[in-house]
Amino acid sequence: MAQPVPPTLRAILERRSLTRLLAPGPSFEQLELVLRAALTVPDHGSLRPYRFLVVEGEGRARFGRALALSLEAHRPGATPVELEWVSKKAYLAPTLVALVAAPHRGHKVAEWEQLATAACAGYAITLAASTLGLGAIWKSVHYPLDARAKALLGLLSEEVCLGWINLGTPAPGFAPPPRPELSPAGLTTVFDGGEPRGFAPR
Ligand SMILES: Cc1cc2nc3c(=O)[nH]c(=O)nc-3n(C[C@H](O)[C@H](O)[C@H](O)COP(=O)(O)O)c2cc1C
């Protein structure tokens, strides 16, 4: 008999990122719920090795500037047009939640575990926002925030920005197609006492 899919799991299976996001952004109450969801992620040692920057309204100018400063540092030959283009990424949604990994250096919980926890927080934000009917998409730039950008955003030197999640009202008519059928078979190896095998009914 087919396994019934409960609504919470259906929400996970059917979540899609939305790129076209309009005002209004999330209400305070929605945002609080979304961030609370992020605080539930698996976290070895309960270190909370992450924090969030909520960027909205005029605050987007500062975030856009941080992106442009970082591009300038990464590629000193970047043109004014390119710098302008990257700074405009901050304006693609009414609200951005930048995800900051804040690792506890030298802790017995390895740094990679802490980064994994921080990344889970990003997923939780994306998923929780979707379940509230908000549009959400995780965005990034392929270079790190430089020291000037970090100072502008109040990041410590050991902190790392893992990108940001755009949040807003889904634009009508831009829903992505349903997710294609998902199969874990090609990505999964089963060790059950015999030769390692692919994922298939027992
Ligand atoms: C850390 C991280 C950074 C990402 N950065 C971008 C990005 O800059 N631009 C983009 O189009 N997608 C980016 N993505 C992918 C999208 O968030 C999204 O997952 C992808 O478009 C697939 O859509 P789906 O979530 O509906 O499967 C990023 C994902 C992660 C986890």
Whole-number radius of gyration?
19 Å
Order of helices and strands: HEHEHHEHEHEEE
Report the CATH topology name: NADH Oxidase
Q: Which oligomeric form is depicted? A: single chain
Poorly predicted regions: none
Helix proportion of residues, in percent?
A: 25-40%
Distance, first to last CA: 15 Å
Largest sheet: 5 strands, antiparallel
Mean pLDDT: 97
Spell out the key features of this protein.
single chain; 202 residues; alpha+beta; NADH Oxidase; two-stranded antiparallel sheet; 6 helices; 18% strand; binds flavin mononucleotide
Short structural summary:
This protein is α+β, with helices and mostly antiparallel strands and 202 residues long. The protein contains six helices and seven strands, in the order H-E-H-E-H-H-E-H-E-H-E-E-E.
Describe the structure.
The structure is a single chain. This protein is α+β, with helices and mostly antiparallel strands and 202 residues long. It has one domain: 3-Layer(aba) Sandwich (NADH Oxidase), CATH 3.40.109. 35% of the residues lie in helices and 18% in strands. It is built from 6 helices and 7 strands. It has helices spanning 7-14, 28-38, 59-74, 80-87, 111-131, 147-153; strands at residues 21-22, 50-56, 95-101, 135-139, 160-170, 189-190, 197-198. The strands form 2 sheets. Strands 1, 2, 3, 4 and 5 form a 5-stranded antiparallel beta sheet that branches. A two-stranded antiparallel sheet has the order 6-7. Helix 2 runs antiparallel to helix 5 (111-131). The mean pLDDT is 97. The structure holds flavin mononucleotide.
